[in-house]
Design a protein that fits this description.
Keywords: Acyltransferase, Biotin biosynthesis, Pyridoxal phosphate, Transferase
Strand order of the largest sheet: 3-9-8-7-6-4-5
CATH class of the largest domain: Alpha Beta
CATH topology of the largest domain: Aspartate Aminotransferase, domain 2
Largest sheet: 7 strands, mixed
Helix content: 40-55%
Number of helices: 14
Protein name: 8-amino-7-oxononanoate synthase
Organism: Tissierella pigra
Radius of gyration: 22 Å
Pathway: Cofactor biosynthesis; biotin biosynthesis
Shape: globular
Distance between the termini: 58 Å
Bound molecules: pyridoxal-5'-phosphate
Number of strands: 13
Number of domains: 2
Structural class: alpha/beta
Enzyme class: transferase
CATH superfamily of the largest domain: Type I PLP-dependent aspartate aminotransferase-like (Major domain)
Strand content: 15-25%
Length: 396
């Protein structure tokens, strides 16, 4: 008889992972998140972090974090609805609202729990959520926590969306369309102008998760809505503070009504401690820097264009990305993982992404170029891609 506390049912599942060749250990980084890092004891060029603007280890932002710690301490002491709501939390929300050109912005501890908390709070039985089939896991979890009905439309397929909308309009009270602003695996941008038009035609609300658009698209990284000039036409504009902004946190911006309701019903804010002062101080500085200058986003796009041009002209298949996310599509799953492993052996870290994260046969390494990369680092990485690509007969 096995002892229940040995967790043998989990051990069996772990054995299955090993048998399927998908068991893994996590790479360990011994430096700050920079363009070059020490990973598992070895210096490598980092082409996999979401630190788009290089803000994660920016001096000005670090100083702001330290200053916030000195004045407000290491922790906030409580959830916001009890006594964890500091003036710096409210100031940051006002700054974010201004940045996004919305009435109000409501702050969460992460983008993940922003989705988990907001979607369930703004929907109820009798409503329906219509979600792009490639939406992020945190949106899927948020939808699962909602008591509304749920359905999906084919990825960025407006005929599919309209079909679902037409059918839903007859049977449900409120309709909420949810989409990623930028899709993280392919780097394509949501067809937001068409989505907003369809939403208006069928009297639906819209919710955009702009995690990969935040700090990347639009003027100074204001996001996908700004990129398309759709201010005031998206009801829930969700932003991420952990990718482009380089630190931690999430928020949803929109109307004051949205803010007032979430401050009473957003469960991650009601039942989990508010962001610590260091994070609030750092994020506030990062957003201030973006509002002062476009130099950070300009540099990101300059590097991204350079990388796409170089990698594309070598003959790699870089898909249909419209953003700095640059997939190099290899296809076969095992070959993709081998490509990633060989790049690492040659000093370039790019994570391999395969089924079930992306469809079978579309395995890729996903290159994330940042504003912090130098041309010299990018050129060195290009050389490694060429060398390994030729060795593996991916390039002719
Ligand atoms: C990364 C990501 C999140 C989660 O962001 P965190 O701030 O790290 O919790 C949510 N949605 C999308 C689309 C993402 O890419």
């Amino acid at each position: 008889m096995s002892n229940i506390h040995e967790l043998s049912y989990l051990k069996e599942k772990i054995e299955e992972l090993k048998k399927d060749g998908v068991y893994r250990t996590l790479p360990v980084m011994e430096t700050a998140s920079e363009a070059e890092v020490i990973l598992n004891g070895k210096k490598v060029i980092n082409l996999s972090s979401n630190n788009y603007l290089g803000f994660a280890n920016n001096d000005r932002i670090k100083k702001a974090a330290i200053a916030a710690i000195e004045k407000y301490g290491a922790g906030s002491g409580a959830v916001r609805t009890i006594i964890g709501n500091m003036d710096i939390h409210e100031d940051l929300e006002k700054l974010l609202a201004k940045f996004k050109k919305d009435e109000a912005a409501f702050l969460y501890q992460s983008a993940f729990n922003c989705n988990a908390g907001t979607i369930q709070a703004i929907t109820e039985p009798g409503d329906i959520i219509i979600s792009d089939e490639l939406n992020h896991a945190s949106i899927i979890d948020g939808c699962r926590l909602s008591k509304a009905s749920k359905t999906v439309f084919k990825h960025s397929d407006m005929d599919s969306l309209e079909e679902v909308l037409k059918e839903s309009r007859k049977n449900y009270k409120n309709i909420l369309i949810i989409t990623d602003g930028v899709f993280s695996m392919d780097g394509d941008i949501a067809k937001l102008p068409e989505i907003v038009e369809l939403a208006e035609k069928y009297e639906a609300m819209t919710y955009v998760d702009d995690s990969h658009g935040s700090g990347v698209l639009g003027e100074s990284g204001r996001g996908t809505i700004d990129h398309f000039g759709l201010h005031g036409r998206v009801d829930f504009s969700m932003g991420c503070l952990s990718k482009g902004i380089g630190v931690m946190g999430g928020y949803v911006s929109g109307s004051q009504t949205m803010y007032d309701w979430l401050s009473h019903r957003a469960r991650p804010v009601l039942f989990s401690t508010s962001l610590p002062p260091a994070v609030v101080g750092a994020v506030t500085e990062a957003v201030t820097m973006l509002m002062e200058s476009t130099e950070y986003t300009d540099k990101l796009w300059e590097n991204a264009r350079y990388w796409k041009e170089k990698i594309g002209s070598l003959g790699f298949n870089t898909g249909h990305s419209e953003t700095p996310i640059t997939p190099v599509i290899i296809g076969d799953e095992a070959k993709t993982m081998e490509f990633s492993r060989k790049l690492l052996e040659n000093g370039v870290f790019v994570s391999g992404i395969v089924f079930p994260t992306v469809p079978k046969g579309t395995g890729r390494v996903r290159c994330m170029v940042t504003a912090a990369h130098t041309k010299e680092q990018l050129d060195r990485a290009v050389e490694v891609f060429e060398k390994v690509g030729k060795e593996m007969n991916i390039l002719k």
